[in-house]
Specification:
This protein is α/β, with parallel strands linked by helices. The chain contains 12 helices and 14 strands.
């Protein structure tokens, strides 16, 4: 067993390196991914080792980047596209939702587009406008796209491998403020299927459902609640499309209370779909309504105010208390 402690950024770098080394049809494309190694250094050293034909610095043209990746996928390649920041993805949104997501159905299953679109997302790094968005629900709503987000180094390593190997397009959201969080990665043991939720902490009184950057916050909330005698389960969703509703249902039936936490705005967020579906499935098991914690329905604020905007420990614990009070 080869276990190594590494950051999420390092895990992604190692996973991309392995993908390039394993399959000559794998390419990496994006703004500054080559010589610079990406603004977060996720692709650091890859162009040096694999060449400019495999790790390609592109013009500042997100629509062109994704459109080119679609063409390459049609010719048998497996492109990995980096969108430099979450808020930069929207020029490519048309290519993603009208072409990338639809081609498999449009061709009656004859054409596959194995494209991975990497998007660093979320706040917490003190960035300027358009650098701290959480647009995952916009993509999860589109049939034909898989949408995932790791919360730890092991998942970052293995989920990237699984995304690259998928014959369907995958939108891979990377929680940028967690890039430097470290954890153990077993590079020889696949942890499980790409879209399977994982219990990050066992509990019996209430379930916190989260993904990506909010899993760490929920684990901290569960630890704080334990000091008051409350047993909180934390479910790491890992995938927003498809969603592992069976895992959420099992936990909801066990605890009777569910709070969904995500960084994106609550209004029309993925928590709404989870709340509705779990209410339908578990109505007679629930001791309280499914509650949601997330960002406010406003444009992402200037960096000085982002701590007020982002869901933190107090807002999660407040929702826990409200649920337990029913």
């Amino acid at each position: 067993m080869a276990v190594e402690k590494m950051s999420i950024a390092k895990a992604l770098n190692e996973s991309l390196r392995l993908a390039l080394d394993t399959d000559p049809k794998v390419l990496i494309m994006g703004e500054d991914v080559g010589k610079l190694g990406g603004v977060f250094r996720i692709t650091d050293g890859l162009q040096k080792d694999f060449g400019e034909d495999r790790v390609i610095d592109t013009p500042l043209a997100e629509s062109g980047i994704v459109g080119t990746a679609i063409g390459l996928a049609l010719r048998g390649y497996r492109p990995i596209v980096e969108i430099q920041f979450d808020g930069f993805v929207f020029p490519a949104y048309d290519q993603i939702v009208t072409q990338l997501a639809k081609m498999h159905a449009r061709s009656l299953g004859k054409v596959k587009l194995p494209v991975v679109v990497r998007i660093p997302y979320g706040g917490g790094i003190g960035a300027v406008e358009h650098h701290s968005e959480s647009p995952e629900a916009l993509f999860a709503h589109v049939a034909g796209l898989k949408v995932v987000s790791p919360s730890n180094a092991s998942d970052a390593y293995w989920m990237m491998q699984q995304a690259v190997q998928s014959d369907d397009p995958v939108i891979f959201f990377e929680p940028k403020r967690r890039y430097w969080d470290k954890g153990e990665v077993d590079t020889e043991s696949i942890p499980g299927p790409l879209h399977k939720a994982v219990t990050a902490r066992d509990g019996g009184d209430l379930t916190l459902v989260a993904y990506g950057p909010m899993v760490k916050v929920c684990l901290e909330a569960a630890a704080a609640a334990q000091e008051e005698g409350k047993s909180i389960e934390v479910l790491d969703l890992r995938s927003m499309a498809p969603i592992d509703f069976d895992a959420i249902q099992r936990s909801a039936e066990k605890t009777g209370r569910v709070v969904v936490v995500h960084e994106a705005p609550v209004f029309y967020g993925s928590g709404a779909e989870i709340a509705a579906r779990i209410t339908e499935r578990c109505f007679y098991h629930l001791e309280a309504p499914v509650l949601r914690v997330g960002g406010y329905s406003v444009p992402y604020p200037p960096a000085r105010l982002e701590d007020e905007y982002l869901p933190g420990l107090d807002r999660v614990l407040d929702a826990v208390d409200r649920s337990l009070a029913f």
